[in-house]
Specification:
Residues 460-480 are annotated as: Disordered. By secondary structure, this protein is mostly beta strands. It has one helix at residues 2-43, and strands spanning 74-76, 79-81, 88-92, 95-96, 101-107, 114-121, 128-136, 143-148, 160-167, 175-182, 189-192, 196-197, 202-208, 215-220, 229-232, 239-245, 252-260, 266-273, 279-283, 286-288, 292-298, 305-310, 319-322, 329-335, 342-350, 356-364, 369-372, 376-377, 382-388, 395-401, 409-415, 422-429, 437-444, 450-457.
């Protein structure tokens, strides 16, 4: 019996100990739960606008419910790190070229808001703003758009453009800015098939590193003005193996310069320009006045004018010839004027290349031939004149001298035809005091050509009754 009582007592003690441990655990769980509830009431409910006895009175310090976004909180390598929620816009890449794809990313705007993307060039009154595109904020107030960066002209290399993302409407004005740096134009690369040649030679040019589909201006020995050639790049910003004529430049070392008209990118190559040695062929080399002299030339600059001067390398040209694509020309020349006598020189100068060459020719004298209608006769004989070899359509004056050494006087005049000839031109009566001969000299009034003929006077064996002739009056239409 005693053993049974001791056993029941031991069991009761054990049960009591188990119940005590369970009660302690419940107490710990309850305390933790109360602590969590109290902290939630103090920290979370006020942010939701719920007031409770546990929240207490707010302090005078800043709260998480601030209505304005915090400003920049740090600066790293000159770049401001904005506070949470402020709008921001970035470019990828930040260094751009015209017609180059650029991605613009923005955040911190209102969800669904329309955001205008603008580009500003310059500052102050000279600032120019250009709309680029319009984006729409997503549900997080962010946007992402890609566009081709617009051209800024040939002098834009190295200059900045300001990109502005500006939200339309809204309670607060949300604007973000970023800088787009225009890539400097030194990235262009050029290659020539030859680095020595003379103006007009053809070389092969290849270039790369420019903007797609942009025009390239090609200059020889300069970087402005009218380009010698204009090329256009392909989709990769390149031009491959195009024929190019060597342009006009100073003899010696010069440069071939290629400038992109959109990107402002440039490339240059040294080139050794050789001197031009043109040549001229005249036809004929000897000619009478009022006849044409023609000439051909080669070795000049292609498609340049050749200035043609007489007996001088300066002054007003008498003619201008145009060379073809091979630097050659052919000219009908000019009519040699009567004023030119003897040896003459023609000087040919390329207007662009300044290449100069000269060639000589000779102006032959007119040497006419004349005869009288009869070779001799008695005093009172009326004679006329036959002539050849004078200048075309010129007046011929007839001078007579009664005997050798006598003073000559004008006694007749006539005009030759287009071939310089005359038949039975003029009229003269042999006077009674003519002696034994009359010496006639015929002079062309334009060509200066002269010829003489002697008329033999027969012996009349006594006085001859021939009325004296009045002095010859030159008609006005036979002056020259």
């Amino acid at each position: 019996m005693a053993n049974a009582v001791r056993t029941r007592s031991a069991q009761s003690v054990q049960e009591a100990r188990v119940r005590a441990r369970q009660n302690w655990k419940r107490l710990v769980i309850l305390v933790v739960a109360v602590f969590v509830v109290v902290n939630l009431a103090r920290s979370v409910l006020p942010t939701l606008g719920v007031k409770t006895p546990l929240t207490g009175r707010p302090t005078s310090g800043a709260t998480t419910g601030a209505k304005t976004m915090p400003p920049a909180t740090a600066e790293v390598n000159g770049v401001k790190v904005l506070g949470s929620g402020a709008p921001i816009v970035t470019l990828d890449p930040g260094m751009v070229r015209p017609d180059m794809p650029v991605t613009i990313v923005g955040s911190g705007f209102d969800p669904g808001a329309k955001i205008d993307i603008l580009m500003t060039k310059g500052s102050g009154k000279k600032a120019k703003t250009t709309p680029l595109t319009t984006a729409t904020g997503d549900r997080y107030g962010a946007f992402y758009t890609t566009l081709k960066f617009p051209a800024q002209g040939p002098n834009a290399g190295g200059q900045n453009s300001e990109i502005t993302a500006q939200q339309r409407g809204g309670k607060t004005k949300k604007v973000a800015k970023a800088q787009a740096q225009m890539a400097a134009g030194a990235a262009g690369v050029a290659k020539l098939s030859a680095v020595v040649g003379k103006p007009g030679d053809t070389v092969t040019l290849s270039v790369s590193g420019f903007s797609p589909y942009e025009e390239l201006s090609v200059y020889w020995g300069r970087i402005s003005g009218t380009p010698n050639e204009t090329l256009k790049t392909d989709s990769t910003g390149s031009v491959q193996k195009v024929p190019l004529k060597v342009g006009v430049s100073a003899v010696g070392t010069t440069s071939l310069v290629i400038v992109g008209q959109k990107s402002g990118a440039a490339a240059s190559l040294p080139f050794q320009v050789l001197k031009l040695y043109p040549s001229i062929a005249l036809k004929p080399y000897a000619v009478k006045a009022m006849n044409p002299i023609g000439f051909t030339g080669k070795g000049f600059m292609p498609n340049e004018r050749v200035l043609i001067r007489l007996n001088s390398a300066s002054g007003a040209p008498i003619l201008v010839a145009q060379t073809d694509g091979a630097g050659t020309f052919r000219s009908g020349g000019f009519i040699v004027p009567y004023q030119l006598k003897g040896a003459q020189r023609i000087v040919f100068t390329g207007e662009l290349s300044r290449a100069t060459v000269n060639s000589s020719f000779t102006v032959l004298p007119y040497m006419p031939m004349v005869r009288t209608s009869t070779y001799g006769g008695s005093p009172g004989t009326i004679i006329s004149f036959y002539a050849t070899g004078f200048g075309a359509n010129e007046a011929v004056h007839v001078y007579a001298a009664k005997g050798k050494g006598a003073k000559r006087e004008l006694v007749a005049a006539f005009r030759v035809d287009a071939t310089g000839s005359a038949r039975a031109g003029g009229r003269y009566t042999v006077p009674g005091d003519a002696g034994d001969a009359v010496l006639f000299t015929l002079v062309g009034q334009r060509s200066g050509g002269s010829a003489t003929v002697t008329f033999k006077v027969d012996n009349s064996a006594g006085p001859v009754d021939v009325a004296p002739q009045p002095p010859y009056a030159l008609p006005p239409d036979l002056q020259n």
